[in-house]
Amino acid sequence: MKVLISGGAGFIGSHVTEELLDHHYDVVSIDNLATGSSSNVPESVKFYNYDLNDPEMEYVFEIEKPDIVIHLAAQASVTASMRDPYLDFHTNTAGTLRLLLLSKKYQVKKFLFASTAAVYGEPLYFPIDEKHKTNPQSYYAQSKFSAENYIALYDVLNGMDSCILRFSNVYGPRQNPNGEAGVISIFINKLLNEEAVSIYDGSQTRDFIYVKDVASACRHAIANEKKGIYNVSSGTETTINDLFNLLAKEFDSHLSPSYKPLRQGEIERSVLDNKKAKFELGWNAEHSLLEGLKETVKYYMKEAAVYEY
């Protein structure tokens, strides 16, 4: 099976690429390199440096004729989305529709979309399952939810099998600090450089999921005939204070963070129910937070050593 991955040079996309190669899929990668790096793309993978809305995108479909599309490319910074909501729409919503149009034209068998827990907004109950009402509270979340609705309608009107994965806070090697779990890479970089750390309240909770478990979920979703919406998460709440303490321990650091009030509009608790993905897709999150953090810290320390050299 040939799989086309949009955002394949990015943080999550590069790990999904490696996961699929390990299971003998034929992978083609597309990325505009706005936040990704061509160095993240394995040499064996054919790479196209295009934006989703470039006219040349059709050339890729015409030449490669993918069986499956995994759509990971996105503008993922909530802060950037609030500054420039049109950029969010252009990339996350219009870009998705562009891929849907091409997928229909070139008879793609399955369309997998990376969405976000942010579409749920302020939780009404915990853990948040897929039946929880949606209430996007940022332009980023709205752009992702709008893309979800286009995908669902395409499925109904055109019979294209689709699967939407709503990720919780993804973290791991190669992450930049602007994503939804960017706090981890921010903390690591601060601890590496022995710089002051600011924590906003610290009692708020997040559901951190290791990127290799996310890559595994993508593989399970395309290998499975199931379609619909699935939460991909660890199912575990972790406070920002506990997260910092775990990372400080990994660095044997006695750095004390400075505390500031919770930022306006920030969700205080978040944890997703992942039972549906476990039951229907046969997927499990195999890495504990501590295991994932150890691997992530090891990666950043290695990168820092190479840079210093």
Offer a quick outline of the entry.
By secondary structure, the protein is an alpha/beta fold. Helices cover 42% and strands 17% of the residues.
Describe this protein's structure.
- With 309 residues, the protein is an alpha/beta fold.
- It has a single domain, classed as NAD(P)-binding Rossmann-like Domain (Rossmann fold).
- The chain contains ten helices and 13 strands.
- It has helices spanning 11-22, 57-64, 78-83, 85-105, 139-158, 182-192, 211-223, 240-250, 275-281, 289-308, and strands spanning 2-6, 26-30, 46-48, 68-71, 110-116, 161-167, 169-171, 198-200, 205-206, 208-210, 228-232, 238-239, 258-260.
- The protein has a seven-stranded parallel sheet, sandwiched between helices.
- Helix 1 crosses helix 7.
- The radius of gyration is 19 Å and the shape is globular.
- The N and C termini lie far apart (41 Å).
Determine the N-to-C terminus distance: 41 Å
Average pLDDT reading: 94
Structural class: alpha/beta
> What gyration radius follows from the Cα positions, in whole Å?
19 Å
User: In percent, how much strand structure appears in the residues?
Assistant: 15-25%
Low-confidence sequence ranges: none
| Spatial order of the strands forming the largest sheet | 3-2-1-4-5-6-11
How many distinct domains? 1
Helices and strands, with pairings:
Layout: E1 2-6, H1 11-22, E2 26-30, E3 46-48, H2 57-64, E4 68-71, H3 78-83, H4 85-105, E5 110-116, H5 139-158, E6 161-167, E7 169-171, H6 182-192, E8 198-200, E9 205-206, E10 208-210, H7 211-223, E11 228-232, E12 238-239, H8 240-250, E13 258-260, H9 275-281, H10 289-308
Parallel strand pairs: 1-2, 1-4, 2-3, 4-5, 5-6, 6-11, 7-10, 8-13
Antiparallel strand pairs: 9-12
Helix pairs in contact: 1-7, 4-5, 6-8
